[in-house]
Amino acid sequence: MAVVDFEYKFILVDIGCNDRHNDSSIFLRSEIAPYLEEQLLHKPTQKLPGGNIPVPYLILGDSAFGLQPHLLKPFPHATEINNMLHRVFNNRLSRARRTVENA
């Protein structure tokens, strides 16, 4: 389990669990979850380079994760034609998550 920043730098890594659990349960049992809750997610929002809109720290997760205010996860059932925006969001979220998964 790992957390990277917007510059693809690893900022947190926890390697203490075997692969038989889903990412959500590993996350909840890791040392990363309490650190994020206590430290990182309560920092003031930052402006992205070249922008003026403050953006909070967010975690990207898969569909196994429960809803949390700081977590982005895919929309369920986004394959329907009338959910084009959900499909686009899911695709972009998946591409962003690959940074950590491919490391």
Automatic annotation (TrEMBL):
Family annotation (InterPro entries): HARBI1_dom
Obligatory cofactor(s): a divalent metal cation
Domain DDE Tnp4: residue ranges: 2-103
GO terms for MF: metal ion binding
Keyword line: Metal-binding
Pfam families: DDE_Tnp_4
The name this protein goes by in its record: DDE Tnp4 domain-containing protein
Record organism: Sipha flava (yellow sugarcane aphid)
